[in-house]
Specification:
11 helices, 2-enoyl-CoA Hydratase, Chain A, domain 1, alpha+beta, globular, Transcription Regulator spoIIAA, Pdz3 Domain
Protein backbone atom coordinates (compact mmCIF):
# COMPACT_ATOMS: atom_id res chain seq x y z
CA UNK A 1 0.00 0.00 0.00
CA UNK A 2 1.17 3.47 -0.81
CA UNK A 3 0.77 6.29 1.62
CA UNK A 4 -0.84 9.36 0.11
CA UNK A 5 0.00 12.79 1.49
CA UNK A 6 -2.28 15.78 1.14
CA UNK A 7 -0.82 19.24 1.06
CA UNK A 8 -1.48 22.75 -0.16
CA UNK A 9 1.91 24.35 -0.61
CA UNK A 10 3.31 26.52 -3.37
CA UNK A 11 6.52 24.80 -4.32
CA UNK A 12 9.22 22.37 -3.31
CA UNK A 13 9.54 23.71 0.19
CA UNK A 14 6.97 22.18 2.52
CA UNK A 15 4.59 19.31 2.04
CA UNK A 16 1.83 17.64 3.86
CA UNK A 17 1.00 15.48 6.73
CA UNK A 18 -2.50 14.05 6.52
CA UNK A 19 -1.75 10.41 5.79
CA UNK A 20 -4.41 8.06 4.45
CA UNK A 21 -4.21 4.68 2.78
CA UNK A 22 -4.48 4.74 -0.99
CA UNK A 23 -4.71 1.91 -3.44
CA UNK A 24 -1.81 0.60 -5.45
CA UNK A 25 -2.57 1.34 -9.06
CA UNK A 26 -1.48 -1.76 -10.96
CA UNK A 27 -0.36 -1.44 -14.56
CA UNK A 28 -2.56 -3.00 -17.23
CA UNK A 29 -0.63 -4.77 -19.95
CA UNK A 30 -1.09 -3.66 -23.55
CA UNK A 31 -0.83 -7.19 -24.91
CA UNK A 32 2.91 -7.57 -24.49
CA UNK A 33 5.37 -7.87 -21.59
CA UNK A 34 6.26 -4.56 -20.03
CA UNK A 35 9.67 -3.46 -18.82
CA UNK A 36 10.10 -2.04 -15.34
CA UNK A 37 10.38 1.40 -16.94
CA UNK A 38 7.12 0.88 -18.84
CA UNK A 39 5.47 -0.27 -15.62
CA UNK A 40 6.54 2.93 -13.92
CA UNK A 41 5.27 5.11 -16.78
CA UNK A 42 1.96 3.27 -16.69
CA UNK A 43 1.76 3.50 -12.91
CA UNK A 44 2.02 7.29 -13.08
CA UNK A 45 -0.62 7.37 -15.83
CA UNK A 46 -2.95 5.22 -13.70
CA UNK A 47 -2.56 7.42 -10.62
CA UNK A 48 -3.39 10.52 -12.64
CA UNK A 49 -6.27 8.74 -14.41
CA UNK A 50 -7.93 7.84 -11.11
CA UNK A 51 -7.22 10.96 -9.07
CA UNK A 52 -6.37 14.08 -11.10
CA UNK A 53 -8.81 16.91 -10.41
CA UNK A 54 -9.52 17.77 -14.06
CA UNK A 55 -11.49 14.93 -15.66
CA UNK A 56 -10.84 16.45 -19.11
CA UNK A 57 -7.07 16.13 -18.51
CA UNK A 58 -6.52 19.57 -19.98
CA UNK A 59 -8.95 18.72 -22.83
CA UNK A 60 -6.85 15.83 -24.09
CA UNK A 61 -7.50 12.19 -24.99
CA UNK A 62 -5.87 10.73 -21.90
CA UNK A 63 -6.21 7.11 -23.07
CA UNK A 64 -4.46 7.98 -26.34
CA UNK A 65 -1.66 9.57 -24.32
CA UNK A 66 -1.24 6.32 -22.41
CA UNK A 67 -1.03 4.40 -25.67
CA UNK A 68 1.55 6.86 -26.96
CA UNK A 69 3.89 6.49 -23.99
CA UNK A 70 3.37 2.77 -23.48
CA UNK A 71 4.26 2.04 -27.10
CA UNK A 72 7.77 3.38 -26.54
CA UNK A 73 10.80 1.37 -25.48
CA UNK A 74 12.86 2.73 -22.61
CA UNK A 75 16.51 1.78 -22.38
CA UNK A 76 16.99 3.36 -18.96
CA UNK A 77 15.11 4.79 -16.02
CA UNK A 78 16.39 8.22 -17.04
CA UNK A 79 14.51 7.87 -20.33
CA UNK A 80 11.40 6.79 -18.47
CA UNK A 81 11.68 9.75 -16.09
CA UNK A 82 11.90 12.09 -19.06
CA UNK A 83 8.82 10.50 -20.64
CA UNK A 84 6.86 10.81 -17.38
CA UNK A 85 7.79 14.47 -17.02
CA UNK A 86 6.73 15.04 -20.62
CA UNK A 87 3.42 13.25 -20.03
CA UNK A 88 2.72 15.15 -16.79
CA UNK A 89 3.52 18.46 -18.51
CA UNK A 90 0.64 17.85 -20.94
CA UNK A 91 -1.74 18.57 -18.04
CA UNK A 92 -0.59 22.18 -17.98
CA UNK A 93 -0.68 22.23 -14.17
CA UNK A 94 2.28 23.85 -12.45
CA UNK A 95 1.41 22.07 -9.19
CA UNK A 96 1.44 18.56 -10.70
CA UNK A 97 5.03 17.32 -10.95
CA UNK A 98 7.11 14.17 -11.16
CA UNK A 99 10.26 13.89 -9.01
CA UNK A 100 13.14 11.51 -9.65
CA UNK A 101 14.51 9.70 -6.54
CA UNK A 102 17.01 12.42 -5.66
CA UNK A 103 14.41 15.18 -6.02
CA UNK A 104 11.83 13.16 -4.11
CA UNK A 105 14.26 12.57 -1.26
CA UNK A 106 14.78 16.32 -1.02
CA UNK A 107 11.03 16.84 -1.07
CA UNK A 108 10.53 14.39 1.78
CA UNK A 109 13.33 15.98 3.78
CA UNK A 110 11.36 19.19 3.57
CA UNK A 111 8.41 17.63 5.39
CA UNK A 112 10.33 17.79 8.65
CA UNK A 113 11.11 21.47 8.12
CA UNK A 114 14.78 20.87 7.34
CA UNK A 115 15.46 22.62 4.05
CA UNK A 116 18.58 23.05 1.97
CA UNK A 117 19.21 25.79 -0.55
CA UNK A 118 18.70 29.54 -0.35
CA UNK A 119 15.18 29.66 1.09
CA UNK A 120 12.92 30.83 -1.72
CA UNK A 121 9.30 29.90 -2.33
CA UNK A 122 8.67 30.14 -6.07
CA UNK A 123 5.71 30.22 -8.40
CA UNK A 124 5.15 30.82 -12.09
CA UNK A 125 3.10 33.90 -12.93
CA UNK A 126 -0.11 32.69 -14.57
CA UNK A 127 -0.11 35.42 -17.26
CA UNK A 128 3.56 36.14 -17.96
CA UNK A 129 4.94 32.69 -17.01
CA UNK A 130 7.75 34.55 -15.24
CA UNK A 131 9.54 32.78 -12.38
CA UNK A 132 8.30 34.77 -9.41
CA UNK A 133 9.22 34.82 -5.72
CA UNK A 134 6.22 34.12 -3.51
CA UNK A 135 8.24 34.74 -0.38
CA UNK A 136 11.73 34.32 1.05
CA UNK A 137 11.75 32.07 4.10
CA UNK A 138 12.66 33.98 7.24
CA UNK A 139 16.30 33.73 8.31
CA UNK A 140 17.54 32.13 5.07
CA UNK A 141 20.24 33.41 2.68
CA UNK A 142 17.59 34.81 0.31
CA UNK A 143 15.79 36.53 3.20
CA UNK A 144 18.99 38.08 4.56
CA UNK A 145 20.04 39.28 1.11
CA UNK A 146 16.82 41.27 0.76
CA UNK A 147 14.97 39.33 -1.96
CA UNK A 148 11.28 40.30 -1.81
CA UNK A 149 7.90 38.78 -2.68
CA UNK A 150 6.99 39.43 -6.34
CA UNK A 151 10.64 39.70 -7.40
CA UNK A 152 11.08 38.01 -10.80
CA UNK A 153 14.08 35.71 -11.23
CA UNK A 154 15.33 36.39 -14.76
CA UNK A 155 18.63 34.50 -14.59
CA UNK A 156 20.10 31.64 -12.53
CA UNK A 157 23.88 31.41 -12.79
CA UNK A 158 23.72 33.33 -16.06
CA UNK A 159 21.01 31.07 -17.53
CA UNK A 160 17.88 32.94 -18.60
CA UNK A 161 14.71 31.64 -16.95
CA UNK A 162 12.35 32.63 -19.77
CA UNK A 163 10.46 29.46 -20.71
CA UNK A 164 12.13 27.50 -17.88
CA UNK A 165 9.90 25.13 -15.93
CA UNK A 166 9.67 25.79 -12.22
CA UNK A 167 11.11 22.38 -11.30
CA UNK A 168 14.11 23.04 -13.58
CA UNK A 169 14.63 26.39 -11.86
CA UNK A 170 14.48 24.72 -8.45
CA UNK A 171 17.09 22.15 -9.52
CA UNK A 172 19.43 24.95 -10.59
CA UNK A 173 18.96 26.88 -7.35
CA UNK A 174 19.47 23.84 -5.11
CA UNK A 175 22.98 22.52 -4.53
CA UNK A 176 25.55 21.47 -1.94
CA UNK A 177 25.79 23.53 1.23
CA UNK A 178 28.45 26.22 1.01
CA UNK A 179 28.32 26.56 -2.78
CA UNK A 180 27.22 29.74 -4.53
CA UNK A 181 24.27 30.50 -6.78
CA UNK A 182 23.88 33.80 -8.61
CA UNK A 183 20.35 35.10 -9.18
CA UNK A 184 19.45 38.08 -11.33
CA UNK A 185 16.22 39.65 -10.05
CA UNK A 186 13.85 42.03 -11.83
CA UNK A 187 12.02 44.32 -9.41
CA UNK A 188 9.78 46.74 -11.25
CA UNK A 189 12.02 48.50 -13.76
CA UNK A 190 15.22 47.68 -11.90
CA UNK A 191 17.40 44.58 -12.05
CA UNK A 192 19.67 43.38 -9.25
CA UNK A 193 22.14 40.53 -8.94
CA UNK A 194 22.40 38.47 -5.75
CA UNK A 195 25.21 36.01 -5.03
CA UNK A 196 23.84 33.62 -2.42
CA UNK A 197 25.60 30.87 -0.47
CA UNK A 198 23.51 27.72 -0.16
CA UNK A 199 22.85 26.53 3.40
CA UNK A 200 21.01 23.99 5.50
CA UNK A 201 17.91 25.74 6.75
CA UNK A 202 16.21 24.47 9.88
CA UNK A 203 12.83 26.14 10.08
CA UNK A 204 11.47 26.85 13.54
CA UNK A 205 7.93 27.69 12.56
CA UNK A 206 6.73 29.65 15.57
CA UNK A 207 8.28 32.60 17.36
CA UNK A 208 6.42 34.71 19.90
CA UNK A 209 6.75 37.48 22.47
CA UNK A 210 4.68 39.87 24.55
CA UNK A 211 4.41 43.58 23.94
CA UNK A 212 2.93 46.29 26.13
CA UNK A 213 0.57 48.68 24.36
CA UNK A 214 -1.88 51.39 25.40
CA UNK A 215 -4.54 48.68 25.53
CA UNK A 216 -2.46 46.40 27.74
CA UNK A 217 -0.24 43.37 27.18
CA UNK A 218 -0.64 41.60 23.84
CA UNK A 219 0.88 38.44 22.42
CA UNK A 220 2.65 38.48 19.06
CA UNK A 221 3.04 35.15 17.22
CA UNK A 222 4.84 34.73 13.90
CA UNK A 223 4.29 31.61 11.79
CA UNK A 224 6.53 31.54 8.68
CA UNK A 225 5.53 28.07 7.44
CA UNK A 226 3.12 25.21 8.22
CA UNK A 227 5.59 22.41 8.93
CA UNK A 228 4.99 19.20 10.86
CA UNK A 229 6.14 20.80 14.10
CA UNK A 230 4.11 24.00 13.67
CA UNK A 231 0.96 22.85 15.54
CA UNK A 232 2.91 21.73 18.64
CA UNK A 233 4.92 24.95 18.62
CA UNK A 234 1.79 27.07 18.17
CA UNK A 235 0.15 25.21 21.07
CA UNK A 236 3.14 25.97 23.32
CA UNK A 237 3.20 29.61 22.24
CA UNK A 238 -0.48 30.22 23.02
CA UNK A 239 -0.23 28.42 26.35
CA UNK A 240 2.86 30.45 27.33
CA UNK A 241 1.20 33.73 26.36
CA UNK A 242 -1.99 32.81 28.21
CA UNK A 243 0.07 32.24 31.35
CA UNK A 244 1.44 35.75 30.89
CA UNK A 245 -2.17 36.97 30.80
CA UNK A 246 -2.07 38.73 27.46
CA UNK A 247 -5.30 40.49 26.52
CA UNK A 248 -5.21 39.81 22.79
CA UNK A 249 -3.12 38.43 19.92
CA UNK A 250 -1.49 39.44 16.65
CA UNK A 251 -0.82 36.40 14.45
CA UNK A 252 1.65 37.19 11.66
CA UNK A 253 1.17 35.10 8.50
CA UNK A 254 2.92 37.50 6.15
CA UNK A 255 5.17 35.77 3.59
CA UNK A 256 3.95 32.40 4.88
CA UNK A 257 3.67 30.31 1.70
CA UNK A 258 1.70 27.52 3.37
CA UNK A 259 2.66 23.90 3.82
CA UNK A 260 0.83 21.14 5.61
CA UNK A 261 -2.93 20.93 5.34
CA UNK A 262 -3.15 19.04 8.62
CA UNK A 263 -1.13 21.76 10.35
CA UNK A 264 -3.58 24.43 9.20
CA UNK A 265 -6.52 22.38 10.52
CA UNK A 266 -4.90 21.81 13.91
CA UNK A 267 -3.92 25.45 14.31
CA UNK A 268 -7.36 26.69 13.27
CA UNK A 269 -8.87 24.55 16.04
CA UNK A 270 -6.71 26.37 18.58
CA UNK A 271 -8.60 29.59 17.79
CA UNK A 272 -12.08 28.46 16.70
CA UNK A 273 -14.78 27.30 19.09
CA UNK A 274 -16.67 25.29 16.48
CA UNK A 275 -17.73 25.12 12.86
CA UNK A 276 -16.11 24.51 9.51
CA UNK A 277 -12.48 25.27 8.71
CA UNK A 278 -12.34 24.30 5.04
CA UNK A 279 -14.10 22.15 2.43
CA UNK A 280 -12.33 20.04 -0.19
CA UNK A 281 -14.14 19.20 -3.44
CA UNK A 282 -12.68 16.50 -5.68
CA UNK A 283 -13.18 15.96 -9.40
CA UNK A 284 -16.41 14.03 -8.81
CA UNK A 285 -17.74 17.05 -6.89
CA UNK A 286 -17.64 15.06 -3.66
CA UNK A 287 -17.32 17.52 -0.81
CA UNK A 288 -15.43 16.77 2.39
CA UNK A 289 -15.62 19.30 5.22
CA UNK A 290 -13.12 19.69 8.04
CA UNK A 291 -14.41 21.19 11.28
CA UNK A 292 -12.87 22.68 14.40
CA UNK A 293 -12.30 20.27 17.27
CA UNK A 294 -14.33 22.40 19.68
CA UNK A 295 -11.43 22.91 22.12
CA UNK A 296 -9.89 26.33 21.46
CA UNK A 297 -6.95 27.43 23.58
CA UNK A 298 -8.15 31.03 23.84
CA UNK A 299 -11.12 33.20 22.94
CA UNK A 300 -9.29 36.51 23.29
CA UNK A 301 -9.35 39.10 20.46
CA UNK A 302 -7.23 38.22 17.45
CA UNK A 303 -5.83 40.16 14.48
CA UNK A 304 -4.06 38.36 11.62
CA UNK A 305 -1.44 39.95 9.38
CA UNK A 306 -1.46 38.80 5.75
CA UNK A 307 0.10 39.88 2.46
CA UNK A 308 0.65 38.69 -1.11
CA UNK A 309 3.14 36.11 0.19
CA UNK A 310 0.50 34.45 2.40
CA UNK A 311 -0.61 31.39 0.46
CA UNK A 312 -2.44 28.06 0.55
CA UNK A 313 -2.42 26.80 4.17
CA UNK A 314 -2.13 30.43 5.32
CA UNK A 315 -5.23 31.22 3.29
CA UNK A 316 -7.11 28.25 4.74
CA UNK A 317 -6.40 29.48 8.27
CA UNK A 318 -7.03 33.18 7.66
CA UNK A 319 -10.10 32.48 5.50
CA UNK A 320 -11.67 30.28 8.18
CA UNK A 321 -11.06 32.79 10.97
CA UNK A 322 -12.30 35.68 8.82
CA UNK A 323 -15.48 33.83 7.77
CA UNK A 324 -16.19 32.97 11.41
CA UNK A 325 -15.59 36.62 12.48
CA UNK A 326 -13.02 35.20 14.89
CA UNK A 327 -10.24 37.43 13.57
CA UNK A 328 -9.71 40.71 11.77
CA UNK A 329 -7.33 40.51 8.78
CA UNK A 330 -4.89 43.39 8.26
CA UNK A 331 -2.42 43.87 5.39
CA UNK A 332 -2.84 43.21 1.68
CA UNK A 333 -4.62 40.63 -0.48
CA UNK A 334 -3.22 37.10 -0.18
CA UNK A 335 -1.64 34.99 -2.94
CA UNK A 336 -4.69 33.02 -4.12
CA UNK A 337 -3.95 29.28 -4.18
CA UNK A 338 -7.13 27.27 -3.68
CA UNK A 339 -5.87 23.85 -4.81
CA UNK A 340 -4.89 20.74 -2.88
CA UNK A 341 -2.22 18.27 -3.96
CA UNK A 342 -1.36 14.71 -2.99
CA UNK A 343 1.97 12.91 -3.15
CA UNK A 344 2.37 9.30 -4.29
CA UNK A 345 5.73 7.65 -3.61
CA UNK A 346 6.73 5.16 -6.33
CA UNK A 347 8.58 1.89 -5.81
CA UNK A 348 11.94 3.05 -7.16
CA UNK A 349 12.11 6.04 -4.81
CA UNK A 350 10.67 8.58 -7.23
CA UNK A 351 7.34 10.27 -6.61
CA UNK A 352 4.40 12.11 -8.13
CA UNK A 353 2.71 15.24 -6.82
CA UNK A 354 -0.73 15.83 -8.33
CA UNK A 355 -3.63 18.21 -7.86
CA UNK A 356 -6.61 16.28 -6.50
CA UNK A 357 -9.08 18.87 -5.23
CA UNK A 358 -10.09 22.50 -4.84
CA UNK A 359 -10.75 24.00 -1.45
CA UNK A 360 -13.33 26.53 -0.28
CA UNK A 361 -13.60 28.67 2.83
CA UNK A 362 -16.45 27.97 5.29
CA UNK A 363 -18.66 30.50 3.47
CA UNK A 364 -17.96 28.78 0.17
CA UNK A 365 -15.44 31.28 -1.20
CA UNK A 366 -13.21 30.02 -4.02
CA UNK A 367 -10.00 31.97 -3.48
CA UNK A 368 -7.97 30.39 -6.31
CA UNK A 369 -6.31 33.12 -8.40
CA UNK A 370 -8.25 35.65 -6.30
CA UNK A 371 -6.82 35.54 -2.80
CA UNK A 372 -8.40 36.85 0.38
CA UNK A 373 -8.95 40.58 0.82
CA UNK A 374 -8.04 41.83 4.32
CA UNK A 375 -10.62 43.64 6.43
CA UNK A 376 -8.17 46.53 6.76
CA UNK A 377 -5.92 47.18 3.76
CA UNK A 378 -2.45 48.56 4.56
CA UNK A 379 0.01 48.83 1.67
CA UNK A 380 3.77 49.08 2.15
CA UNK A 381 6.24 51.06 0.10
CA UNK A 382 9.21 49.18 -1.36
CA UNK A 383 11.46 50.68 1.33
CA UNK A 384 9.05 49.62 4.08
CA UNK A 385 8.78 46.14 2.62
CA UNK A 386 12.56 45.79 2.40
CA UNK A 387 12.99 46.94 6.01
CA UNK A 388 10.37 44.41 7.06
CA UNK A 389 11.96 41.52 5.17
CA UNK A 390 15.35 42.38 6.67
CA UNK A 391 13.80 42.28 10.16
CA UNK A 392 14.57 45.94 10.81
CA UNK A 393 10.97 46.87 11.61
CA UNK A 394 9.21 43.53 12.07
CA UNK A 395 6.59 43.69 14.84
CA UNK A 396 7.45 47.26 15.78
CA UNK A 397 5.35 50.39 15.40
CA UNK A 398 7.64 51.32 12.49
CA UNK A 399 5.98 48.43 10.66
CA UNK A 400 2.77 50.09 9.32
CA UNK A 401 0.84 46.83 9.02
CA UNK A 402 1.74 45.76 12.53
CA UNK A 403 0.93 49.24 13.87
CA UNK A 404 -2.50 49.04 12.24
CA UNK A 405 -3.03 45.56 13.69
CA UNK A 406 -2.15 46.80 17.20
CA UNK A 407 -4.50 49.78 16.84
CA UNK A 408 -7.34 47.50 15.75
CA UNK A 409 -6.56 44.98 18.48
CA UNK A 410 -6.64 47.76 21.06
CA UNK A 411 -10.20 48.62 19.95
CA UNK A 412 -11.22 44.97 20.14
CA UNK A 413 -9.73 44.63 23.63
CA UNK A 414 -11.47 47.82 24.75
CA UNK A 415 -14.77 46.58 23.32
CA UNK A 416 -14.28 43.25 25.08
CA UNK A 417 -13.52 44.99 28.38
CA UNK A 418 -16.63 47.16 28.02
CA UNK A 419 -18.73 44.11 27.27
CA UNK A 420 -17.43 42.30 30.37
CA UNK A 421 -18.02 45.39 32.51
CA UNK A 422 -21.63 45.55 31.33
CA UNK A 423 -22.10 41.89 32.12
CA UNK A 424 -20.69 42.33 35.64
CA UNK A 425 -22.97 45.31 36.17
CA UNK A 426 -26.11 43.34 35.52
Amino acid sequence: MFKQKFFVNIELAAIAAILVGSSFYASKALGKPQSNSQNMVDEVWQILDKNYVDVSFNHQDWKAIRQQYMSRSYSSKKEAYGAIQEMVAKLGDRYTEFFDPQEFKALNNDISGNLSGVGLELAQNEKTKALTVVAPIQGTPAFKAGILPDDVIVQINGQKTQGMKIDDAVKRILGPVGTKVVLMIQRGNKSQTFQLTRANIAIHPVTYNTQTTAAGKIGYIRLPEFTQTAPAEMHRAIQALEKQQVQGYVLDLRSDPGGLLDASLQIASMWLKQGAIVSLVNRDQVKESYNASGHPLTNKPLVILVDKGSASASEILSGALQDDHRATLVGTRTFGKGLVQAVEPLEDGSGLKLTIAKYYTPKGRDINHVGIAPDINVELSEAQQKALVQNQTLATLADPQYASAVANLSKLIQSEDNHLSLQRGK
